[in-house]
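Blinded run. Sample ID left blank on purpose so nobody reads anything into the name before looking at the predicted structure. Input follows.
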Amino acid sequence: MPERTKCCTLFLLLYTCCLLQVHGQQGRISISISGRRLSLQHLFTKIQEQTDYYFSYGADVNVARTMDVDFKQTRLSTVLKTILGNDYSWEFDGRSINIRKLPSTPIPVPAHKPARDTPQLIQGKALDETVIIAYGTTTQRFSTGNVTAIKGESIAGQSGTNLLLALQGRVPGLLVTQTGGIGGMAMKVQLRGQNSLENGTQPLFIIDGIPYNPTLSGGLGSQIWGEKASAFNFINPEDVESIDVLKDADATAIYGSRGANGVILINTRKGKAGKTQLRFNIATGVTYTGHSVQLLNTPQYLAMRNEAFRNDGIKPTDRNAPDLLKWDTTRYTDWQKELIGGTGRTISTQASISGGSTNYQYLLSGHYRRESMVFPGAFADTRGGFHLSTNTNSNNQRFSVTFIGSFLADKTTLPGFDFTSRIMLPPNTPPAYLEDGSLNYSWLNPYIGLVGPLFNADVKNLLANIGLQYRLLPGLVLKTNVGYNWLTGRSASLTPLAIYAPAIRNTRRGSAQHFHYEGISRIIEPQATYTLDKFDWHLQILAGGTLQGYNENRDALYADGFKDDALLSNIYYADTVYGKTETAAYRYVALFGRMGINYKNRYLLNLSVRRDGSSRFGPRKQFASFGAIGAAWIFTEEHFAKHLQDILSFGKLRASYGTTGNDQIGDYQYLGQYKKVDGNYQNVTGLRPASLFNADFAWELTRKSELGLDLGFLHDKLLLYASYYLYRSSNQLVSYPLPDITGSGSIIGNLPAVIRNNGLELVLSAQHIRNRNFEWASSFNITFGHNQLLRYPDPTIPMQSSTGFVEGQALSQLYVATAMGVDPATGAYQFADANHHPVPADKAVESKPMDMAPVCYGGWRNNFQWRRFGLEILLQFTKQKGLNTIFDPNYMPGYVQNQYAVVLSRWQQPGDIATYQRYTQTGSLRNGYRKAIESDLGYVDASFIRCRYVEASWSFPVKLLQRLHLQEGKCYLQGQNLLTWTHYTGLDPETQSKTTLPPLRMVSCGLKIAL
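Blinded prediction complete.
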């Protein structure tokens, strides 16, 4: 029986046994609290401990109000009615109990009208809204760490097919960059800068307690997906309820050697108590390229080509100028429109059923989505799956069992190359199809890509988690989480004989490439939590352990020599078959603990520690200890601040310091490694040493410091969060060169190089207007970050980076030549020498700094609600330098390749003062052209402001809901990437590529109903 089948069977058996231990009888929650002069905040805390509910309320709720209570097995509804009295109303919203202060003149609300979050809750920054942290929960008010929570339906709306897109522009300090507009392409995710010279810097992702590998290594052989396809393309965003981003040491040190780059916690939707409810969400939409570049038209292109020949003193011939002498010079084809100007169609459906009682809650949902592409042809991505969540409690609420599982199957068909790489074809190329409808093979026709090579992939993703929880004693809770993830994919890339012209097919052979990927992750985390409330003290202690295993397998099979396209799928008919298999195993064990102290809801202290053991480190360094301390002072609770409460309603100072590690170093790097020798000796292939064994191979260490100030003004209608962070990363893992006498060229070890990342994050949330008919709330965030290589102690160790690093400068900083225009006499580029005099390319000095890291980035989100109409707008912005895609590294202006229209400002005759060099169709100006790409001409302002997400919605009126027998109803219109304001001349300032499809503009409409 396969290992994954055994694990699934074990899950089902455990779950069934647990259900047998829990009575399925429906009952009511009972609360037991006794004491004198207990604050409302204390009562909320006790209720949260005894139930699965949490409280959400605004600043107008007086949580300091005290009272005497004596509840013994009293129903929750009775307890709430007693402690809230006639001053506040309360309502259940899933597991949240929303508390609101009653107005002097109550406004009648229909009983069946669905409750809607206040603008504060919409923004996800309300002080008393629950946020998820490592192995627990807290609130923004009492948090000593830096955590940003993203919640709400806009997660799915903003994500499209990749969940990570929901984080763009919404999380300060987090930079999420798309590498292209095709689903499955890699996503660059970096939290608070680059902490490592050569190793991974992505955050640790955890989905429902299961560590999740964000990349599908090898990309299943797709030329478009690349080597690191995004595994988040195989998570359904509709199933996600919240995303919490953990940043500072206080929040991440408890993850030890995996927390240096931050932690992102993803939690999926769960069942809610109440009547059985059916929900449907149906949407359809279109996608298309939002921006095109201005290229030369046919007359301009032909003039460029003829001028290039005149400049070079060469006569055009059929061989070197078919576009001038053989092709139709009156023909014009807009290759941008032809190849990436199509319209993609999307259709998605989501259905769920949920409900339950106090003792049992459930949710079952299914989804289907199909999205075609803007490329010509029938390429598309089709996916479907289901999500299941159940929670069962015993009658006395002491024992509970939670099961969360999801499954997704995805089928993708892609061309063998990105058609965007062909948009620079000459505008007067011959027609793509002949008069009889067959492909035209007389030239490098991009439409041959519709025949082959073709890429097909089938990917499956399974996530499952079982949580057991038992309240052993008052305040003592035992808990165990068991998680499992299985991500697998198979693909085939077929190159048929049909890509060749019929006249030469008999001399050619077809080929096929088959790839298989499988990643399996298992984790068990037992925990114990003890909570004690004594007088003005609140103490919580957590202790636990982690046991994790991860296995990855990659197979590649290559088959050549097929004589018939009908046989490509069967390798039996190939003349030659060969392949390779790569496997990796990772094991991890840890003990962790945390203690939180709250005194008078005023002084907060949090201590965390973790002891890690990892198979990625050398035998003498396999175990490491990490820890952090976080403290906060809510100074508005002091007597001296009471008279300021009408203006300054909340104020908190916080600070944290701790150590974390980075284990994104690959497996087996400390072992002695060998590589295959090219060729053979007496038909035997040899091996040669590649790297030596290092028993002291250790983790990269990051020390994190942070100071924060959280302020609330005008009864928390205006909230300001300011954070300054300082990270110092050392123990950098680099490759030490060795003399040949050792038998190996290098050994990987720790170098005491130091990298510093520091920055300032600001978040401003405001409730501008809120009355009976209209609400407006907004949230603005901006991040200023700086990176610097403080120390590189051994200059004899070469930098492995292609750009190189300079001590004292940012890791992202380059040194480039300074362009000094075009030589008026020759029409060639010229550059500055050491004395800033114009010289040719071979004498240029590369001394001008060019930093590619963003200067600042962030987002501005606005929510408007007028009666039943809603509007949400998210703007994302980045200030940065980027690659100038005007320059093509392979084709200079004058070659058989179209160019951006700006090259018309070129040198034409002696004495001209021009921006671009003269046209040429030879290599005579190649050195200067390449130097121009590597000079400051090759970099331009790539700053942009993008309308990342817009949603306009209309909720059904009460009478219509009654007539249709619905509980809820809403129709909506959504848009992504609708507008981009930028001076960037290329396709897109985010991807900065002329060969990759840019992020697409999407417009969709949909309907949500609940029965």
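Unblinding after everyone has recorded impressions. The two ends are 43 Å apart (CA to CA).
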